[in-house]
TrEMBL record:
Organism lineage: Bacteria, Pseudomonadati, Bacteroidota, Cytophagia, Cytophagales
Family the UniProt entry places it in: Belongs to the peptidase M17 family.
Pfam families in UniProt: Peptidase_M17
Highest rank taxon of the organism: Bacteria
Protein name: Leucyl aminopeptidase
GO BP: proteolysis
Keyword Hydrolase: yes
Keywords of this entry: Aminopeptidase, Hydrolase, Manganese, Protease
GO molecular function: manganese ion binding; metalloaminopeptidase activity
One annotated Gene Ontology cellular component of this protein: cytoplasm
Organism: Algoriphagus aquimarinus
Length: 475
């Protein structure tokens, strides 16, 4: 898509979109419609409402956003335009923002509009006359200062989120560990960050034994992906780790339900990969090192066994209680490797880790665990601002004993139907080498789910805008 900045709505685009905040709809409509009026009983600017009309042969779409819209609701409202009103749009569209719209709200609207073009029908045969919005011209009318910059940011945010969608939505015969590695290399070349890929042999020489144990049951080779973005004006160094299980059968503790959705078990990796792309594209003045341990957790004669004791990069021995608690094993090696080899100021991991987090928060927010009030509060605030909410759960030391093993230094699962998300976080904490500013985000309930934009569960790119807001709040 291409943005054009306009001074008025005279451009002959096929569709004029006028978003209305509920604070003063009558006055805005009177100004934007050049004297035409709309009966308030038909449209009053209430949230999640819309109204179509035609004036002098031109289609006009009014979008109601309510009195106090947040960025997430505005993004969703604008995503509906192309997702649900494709017939209204031809080669161009004009969006006319009133003076009530802040830069932040305009950015969210433009991001959402672009997301509306996304479809998960990757393998469907193309129908005759099917619309392709890749070359759509979007004319933007706004008195906001720096609207050019806003449009550029919106384009880059939308591009990153769409990549986040695709990485989760594509099937596991496409998104393999090798696919993620190649994706990182291609994005690094385009956006200016370096990428190092450890194959199985290199991972073994680096002592990534827990990571390799999970990969043993799959014919798809594991890839340990390291991305490094550096900025000469950086004053801080952020470390990210994303769980990259491209498909999770559960291993020998095979899943008995819901396996069809397990292509989404790399939602944490998708967030980290897409966020790295976005941070580099925006040239943010930070240093970033991001690691994605990418594996498939499958079953064959070489699969790792329940009761087996395995090693780890941190030197801790791990008793495997459940092979379906595999995500924490690859994260353990990712966290340890990052801390031991890079001097990061803040350390954050994202993972679709436990059903327990879903049981606690449902599909409303991610679970937040941290050993630092400062980073916890910053992430929580960024979540509220971005609409990608996270909320803290306790990390009390009394939970640590649940992970004690008689035969090894630690076990990977406590085997009880209680406090699953918390004990998983305590397991990960054992591998951060006492890093003082670490946060773990369990995003199992929010990385993949039902949506009004698809008939099946789909990716959300949860974490991309959360991480962007978290980082930008510190600049």
């Amino acid at each position: 898509m291409q943005f054009n900045i306009q001074s008025d709505s005279s451009t002959n685009s096929s569709l004029l979109i006028i978003p209305i905040l509920g604070t003063n709809p009558e006055a805005v409509l009177k100004e934007k419609l050049a004297g035409f009026t709309v009966n308030p009983s038909l449209f009053s600017g209430k949230k999640d409402t819309s109204y179509q009309l035609e004036i002098d042969g031109r289609l006009i779409l009014l979008i109601g956003l309510g009195d106090k819209p947040d960025v997430a609701s505005i993004e969703k409202s604008f995503r509906r335009v192309l997702s649900k009103n494709k017939d209204l749009v031809e080669t161009s569209a004009t969006i006319d923002f009133s003076d009530d719209f802040s830069t932040e709200l305009i950015e969210s609207a433009l991001v959402g509009f672009q997301l509306g073009a996304y479809s998960i029908g990757f393998f469907k045969q193309k129908k005759e006359g099917q619309k392709d919005f890749s070359n759509l011209e979007i004319n933007v009318i706004s008195s906001s200062q720096g609207i050019d910059k806003t449009c550029d940011r919106a384009a880059k945010i939308a591009a990153a989120k769409i990549e986040g969608f695709k990485l989760v939505d594509l099937p596991p015969n496409v998104v393999t560990p090798e696919y993620l590695a190649n994706w990182a290399v291609e994005q690094g070349a385009e956006h200016g960050f370096t990428v190092t890929i450890f194959d199985e042999e290199k991972a073994k020489s680096e002592g990534l034994d827990a990571f390799l144990a999970v990969a043993r049951g799959s014919a798809k080779a594991p890839k340990f992906i390291i991305m490094e973005y550096r900025n000469p004006e950086a004053k801080s160094h952020v470390g990210l780790v994303g769980k990259g299980v491209t498909f999770d059968t559960g291993g020998l503790n095979i899943k008995t339900q819901g396996m069809v959705y397990m292509k989404s078990d790399m939602g944490g990796a998708a967030a980290v990969l897409a966020a790295t792309q976005l941070i580099a594209a925006l040239k943010l003045p930070i240093n970033l090192t991001a690691i994605v341990p990418a594996v498939e957790n499958s079953v064959d004669k070489d699969a790792y066994l329940p009761s087996q004791v395995i090693g780890s990069h941190a030197g801790l021995s791990i008793e495997v209680i459940d092979t379906d608690a595999e995500g924490r094993l690859i994260l353990a090696d990712g966290l340890s490797y990052l801390v031991k080899n890079y001097q990061v100021d803040q350390l954050i991991d994202l993972a679709t880790l436990t059903g327990s987090s879903v049981g606690t928060f449902g599909y409303e927010c991610g679970a937040l665990f941290s050993n630092s009030d400062a980073i916890s509060n910053s992430l929580r605030e960024a979540g509220m601002q971005s609409g990608e909410k996270v909320w803290p759960l306790p990390m009390w030391e009394s939970y640590r004993s649940e992970m004690d093993s008689e035969i090894a230094d630690i076990k990977n699962y406590h085997g009880k139907p209680i406090a699953g998300a918390i004990t998983a976080a305590k397991f990960l904490e054992a591998f951060i080498h006492e890093h003082p500013s670490w946060a773990h985000l369990d995003i199992a309930g929010v990385a993949f789910g039902d949506s009004e934009f698809t008939k099946t569960k789909s990716g959300t790119a949860f974490g991309v805008q959360l991480l962007l807001k978290f980082i930008e709040n510190q600049l």
